[in-house]
Amino acid sequence: MKKSLQNKDHTKNIIQKAGFRATKPRLALLSLLQVAKYPLNIKEIMGKLETATADQVTVYRILDAFKKAGIVNQINFQDNATRYEYKDTEHDHHHIVCVTCKKVEDFIGCDYKKLAGEVLKQTPCFAEITDHSFEFFGKCKTCVSV
Amino acid sequence: MKKSLQNKDHTKNIIQKAGFRATKPRLALLSLLQVAKYPLNIKEIMGKLETATADQVTVYRILDAFKKAGIVNQINFQDNATRYEYKDTEHDHHHIVCVTCKKVEDFIGCDYKKLAGEVLKQTPCFAEITDHSFEFFGKCKTCVSV
DNA sequence: TTCATTGCAAAACGTTTGCATGTAT
DNA sequence: ATACATGCAAACGTTTTGCAATGAA
């Protein structure tokens, strides 16, 4: 079986296992997020999706549903546009963003689990932690000298 | 000298040391952020500011300038509204947010400096780190049982 | 006085809602 | 067949821009 077909089946499985119907917009959107090199905002998503694959409103609804289902992560680069990324549990990572040119690079090593335990002890109101966000902002080697 | 006057002078000093003129909107906004118990979004700010103290556009411009000057932090709770918090360098902290009722509690212990060094080694494109964001999302003791 | 700062009007985005139509299972 | 999903239109909330008027130093 060809690799691309395996991937298509895999994408379809993820959608169905999460309890959703495998529709054209959902398959296209999840496939797109799976190959994206960094978290995409709505404009980038609509630009990369083939015309008439999905309405923008549909994309918003799917992203919301996928986020609740734990299939995608919602990410914010402080640029007034929510970004979404496929949640690959095998390759947990976070991002560093250049504040000047917006270049993005991944990094690993965020040991949030240890801190999560300490935080629950510190915060008397809270019972459980379900998610976390963590990004670094800085300057890339090109922009730092400007 | 009364405490409230000391605070007023302190607020004025912060603004002027950052290179800004100590105008009514800027004094009111920074004072508000200094006493806020959690990061405020624009609606909350406009609601808490006395009427006619500052136009909403002015508030946006001041927040942007204060952020660039390092006086305030920009924070995102994944609720489509940018939040701002007075940056008190003496009391560095982050936030945990209840995904159900939006309650916020602070926590300390984010040792980002150690990770920042490792991240710069990992990411060949980046030269320096200037900022970071870190929030936990979870459920408070009231909402967890629902 | 002078230049930084503000207010107002209007536009530009990002996001959500309601409802009729379409479709995966 | 039918409950789930989508598309379209329109509303909504947040943020930005241009420009003339104002005010702090």
UniProtKB/TrEMBL annotation, chains A, B:
Binds 1 zinc ion per subunit. Binds 1 Mn(2+) or Fe(2+) ion per subunit. Fe cation binds at residue 132. Coiled coil: none annotated. Its cofactor is Zn(2+); Mn(2+); Fe(2+). The lineage of its organism: Bacteria, Candidatus Kaiseribacteriota. Belongs to the Fur family. One of its GO terms (molecular function) is zinc ion binding. Pfam families: FUR. This is Ferric uptake regulation protein. Keywords: DNA-binding, Iron, Metal-binding, Repressor, Transcription, Transcription regulation, Zinc. Zn(2+) binds at residues 98, 101, 140, 143. GO terms for biological process: negative regulation of DNA-templated transcription; regulation of secondary metabolite biosynthetic process.
